[in-house]
Write a structure and sequence with these properties.
Elements: E1 3-7, E2 19-21, E3 32-33, H1 47-50, E4 64-65, E5 80-83, H2 86-93, E6 100-109, E7 121-130, E8 136-137, H3 146-149, E9 167-170, E10 177-184, E11 186-187, E12 190-194, H4 196-199, E13 215-217, H5 219-228
Parallel strand pairs: 1-6, 2-6
Antiparallel strand pairs: 1-13, 3-4, 5-9, 6-7, 7-10, 8-9, 11-12
Length: about 240
């Protein structure tokens, strides 16, 4: 069993703020903005539609690129993800049904944080998919049977005027989830400092802007992140 962790969600570049993580590790998943034209018949929510707790007043009428989708979150009923960029698509396409994809985000630290949270901001795993099927290459999507294409109908890349995903993922409904509390990838000392999940259990060195890169994990790293979802966060630091 293998996994890849992918950076998602709002950041200080776009829309200009991060989602918050509270003192107990609870967080708010804030999608990035939609940057491409969408189909006239597509239902594309705005930041205002999401009724966020974080202050999104500056972008309240801006459409969001709601990807990944988590069943039961923001009106979604499936677990899907698409990506147009080869740097993410290539490691994702190397996975198989039953493997995991973890989604991580940089989050701003709220007041009175637990001592396992990084000051100011940090990188945290916020959700997971266990793949219900092999990843679908973007150029193979049009040839899927109608019932298989329907699985991805609500994905943001299918709502764009021009379909552009290089990969599409479908998560199993029984083992995919948006987490209740974030799992740290940063050390408590600083958000830019990677903890052992990155430096010891992933293929990444943890040097440079590691929090923007896809992180590949083998069986041990995959199981450790899954355990930390409901376990002691301090295990992330050794």
């Amino acid at each position: 069993m293998r996994s890849v962790a992918i950076n998602v969600a709002a950041n200080t570049n776009d829309p200009g703020f991060r989602g918050p993580i509270q003192g107990d590790g609870r967080f708010e998943y804030v999608p990035i903005p939609e940057t491409e034209p969408t189909r006239a018949d597509a239902d594309v929510p705005t930041y205002g539609d999401l009724e966020l707790d974080v202050d999104a007043s500056a972008v309240v009428n801006r459409p969001v690129h709601l990807d990944p989708t988590f069943a039961g979150v923001y009106g979604c009923d499936r677990y899907t993800y698409g990506d147009p960029y080869g740097v993410k698509a290539r490691p994702l396409l190397a996975l198989s049904a039953g493997d995991y994809v973890f989604f991580y985000a940089t989050l701003s630290t709220a007041a009175d944080p637990a001592d396992w949270l990084a000051p100011e901001w940090g990188a945290y795993v916020i959700g997971q998919f266990q793949l219900a099927r092999d990843p679908v290459p973007g150029d193979a999507y049009p040839d899927l049977p109608p019932e298989e294409r329907a699985v991805f109908a609500s994905n943001a890349h299918l709502k764009r005027e021009t379909f552009d995903a290089a990969v599409l993922l479908a998560g199993d409904s029984g083992s995919s989830a948006l987490y209740e509390r974030g799992v740290p990838l940063s050390r408590p000392e600083a958000g830019a400092e990677a903890n052992r999940l990155v430096t010891e259990l992933s293929s990444d060195s943890g040097r440079g802007p590691w929090w923007r890169r896809p992180l590949r994990f083998g069986a041990d790293g995959t199981e450790e992140i899954r355990r930390l979802r409901t376990g002691d966060r301090y295990r992330a630091f050794g």
